[in-house]
Write a structure and sequence with these properties.
The chain is α/β, with parallel strands linked by helices. It is built from 22 helices and 10 strands. Among the domains are: about 110 residues, Tetratricopeptide repeat domain (Serine Threonine Protein Phosphatase 5, Tetratricopeptide repeat); about 230 residues, Rossmann fold (3-Layer(aba) Sandwich). The strands form 2 sheets. The protein has a 6-stranded mixed beta sheet with strand order 2-1-3-7-9-10, with helices on both faces. The protein has a 4-stranded antiparallel beta sheet with strand order 6-5-4-8. Strand 1, helix 17 and strand 2 form a beta-alpha-beta unit. The N terminus is likely disordered.
């Protein structure tokens, strides 16, 4: 998001050497044909291997084709196993290194994939396909400059297919070059007008540029194309393109104030079969956005002219806990941060000592309005806990003896992240919520908090693989490292919020540089007892205070 909320196109091109091709007729057409159904192909290859009559390159060929069959099924573990066996027999095979690298990439191990692709390129001759595939791995790692270089090399070598242009365009978008991204996405559409993915990618760019009507038109074309045919690429899970197209059109409709149409598209997003992390993350976003719109009061759509460049903030400080020891500083922290943001021109919604009902209402209303904002800041100070690796923000009226149902009375941070996941908006989420675990404190005093199995500190945000969020365009900052406890402070403010309010209004200071200054001040002020932590997938440089 990204996890970006855009399609990660991957072209798995099987390069077959003349020697391998000449051997196919001897090894059995069912095993050595790309058109054979996967299970039938695996069975045919297994029968040949069981004969134990082939050695050397011919044996490597059988492993290669069985790997092709496993690749069709998405069984990357066996793809890696078979290509590794084949490489022992033919270690200089570009085809095998490319396929194994591709399998490592799809298994979530981009570093190993890059190593295989680099080895294949070292053997030569230069391959646009392998540069493309290595570019995908670099992009997956967030090394966008190297990804951009590899996609450009692939194009220069003649790999001018739609996927390469699209992926280079997505990288340019990530680096903040919207015009360059638009040029590449246009080339992707010209290269293959029948593909839905580039139309969805261009829709995101139109929305980022403020042209909602063109975004809706491109998404509608993407939906039509995705319904017309299955994805050509076996590496693209069925339904992913359509799921993304529906989600992006829903977000466009919502930004345009066409809420009923947005709800229809979010429902359609949920109907798709999500078999990959991108689709699961998109469906998580659709589920939250649909819920927000379904319980929204009937209001007139906000005019487009009123949303241009709109900057909004939600600031909450919970300290007056009824069933836990009170925290004196969060209300002070929230008021100080809210003032700083107002001074910077943000529309600030402020909540102090919120009960469950008030916190849920304020949070959901804010998330609803986020669809029509350009920049968003959310700041929370108070108790926060992690339960089974998920983070929850604690309203002041939570009871320690609620048992397993306690999560229903708290604010789920994963739902906030999923609901705000939108790469055309900048989200800056700041949590000074890592004080001592209140439920453990209650348990030690004779309560039932221990049954909830909470942990001190907050957990690192859920990765896209869990289907929570892609996180494109989002920065998440914690007052301290995941799993660690932040200090409430001896003064009127916590060490973290005191440093934050000193630096947040500095003109021309990029937000990540600002947080670096905050981190240095907190570390020094707490004598290394507290080290603030952040995770960013921001698309370009972001300034909370004007340059």
């Amino acid at each position: 998001m990204r996890r970006l909320i855009s399609i990660v196109a991957f072209v798995a091109v099987v390069l077959v050497s003349p020697a391998l091709a000449q051997s196919n007729a001897q090894l059995g057409p069912l095993c050595t044909s790309e058109g054979t159904p996967a299970d039938q192909q695996i069975s045919a290859c297994n029968k040949i291997l069981a004969l134990k009559v082939f050695t050397g390159e011919k044996l490597a060929t059988i492993y290669f084709w069985r790997a092709v069959a496993y690749n069709k099924k998405g069984d990357y573990k066996n793809v890696i196993a078979d290509t590794t066996q084949a490489l022992k027999l033919t270690p200089k095979s570009i085809e095998l290194l490319n396929m194994r690298g591709s399998a490592y990439y799809d298994s979530g191990e981009p570093d190993i994939a890059i190593s295989d692709f680099t080895d294949a390129l070292a053997i030569g001759p230069p391959s646009g396909t392998i540069y493309h595939n290595r570019g995908n791995a670099y992009r997956n790692k967030g090394d966008y400059k190297k990804a951009l270089d590899d996609y450009t090399r692939a194009i220069d070598l003649g790999t001018r297919n739609s996927y390469t242009y699209q992926n280079r365009g997505l990288v340019k978008q990530t680096l903040g070059d919207l015009d360059g991204a638009m040029a590449d996405i246009n080339e992707a559409i010209r290269a293959d007008p029948s593909l839905a993915g580039p139309h969805t990618a261009r829709a995101v760019l139109w929305r980022a540029k403020g042209n909602i009507d063109k975004a809706i038109a491109d998404c509608t074309e993407a939906v039509t194309l995705a319904k017309a045919k299955q994805p050509l690429n076996v590496m693209t899970p069925p339904g992913r393109v359509l799921i993304n197209a529906y989600l992006q059109r829903g977000l466009s409709y919502e930004a345009n104030g066409q809420f009923d149409l947005a709800k229809d598209d979010y429902n359609s997003t949920m109907q798709g079969i999500a078999v990959d992390n991108v689709s699961k993350a998109n469906q998580a976003t659709a589920k939250v956005r649909l819920s927000l719109l379904s319980d929204a009061p009937a209001t007139a759509p906000v005019k487009k002219t009123e949303t241009a460049g709109r900057r909004v903030a939600l600031v909450i400080g919970n300290g007056a806990y009824r069933n836990f020891p009170a925290l004196p500083n969060p209300p002070n922290d929230a008021r100080a941060v809210a003032k700083s943001l107002r001074d910077l021109g943000y529309e600030v919604t402020e909540g102090i000592d919120l009960t469950q009902d008030k916190m849920q209402k304020m949070t959901r209303e804010f998330m609803r309005n986020a669809a029509q904002a350009k920049t968003l800041v959310l700041y929370y100070a108070g108790h926060g806990v992690q339960i089974s690796g998920r983070n929850f923000l604690v309203p002041i009226d939570v009871t320690p003896d609620a048992g397993a149902a306690v999560t229903d009375s708290m604010t789920d941070m994963d739902k906030i992240l999923a609901g705000l996941d939108d790469q055309v908006r900048t989200n800056v989420l700041i949590f000074d919520a890592c004080r001592n675990d209140p439920f453990s404190q209650a348990a030690s005093a004779g309560g039932r908090g221990v049954e909830i199995k909470t942990r001190s500190g907050l957990a690192q945000p859920v990765a896209p693989s869990a289907g929570s969020t892609l996180g494109a365009g989002t920065l998440i900052a914690f007052a301290t490292a995941p799993g660690q406890v932040a200090l409430d402070g001896d003064g009127a403010n916590s060490p973290f919020s005191a440093a934050l309010t000193r630096h947040i209004s500095t003109p021309g200071l990029e937000v990540q540089q600002m947080l670096t200054r905050v981190r240095a001040e907190v570390v020094a002020g707490t004598h290394n007892k507290q080290v603030p932590w952040s995770n960013s997938s921001l698309l370009g440089e972001v300034y909370l205070a004007a340059k």
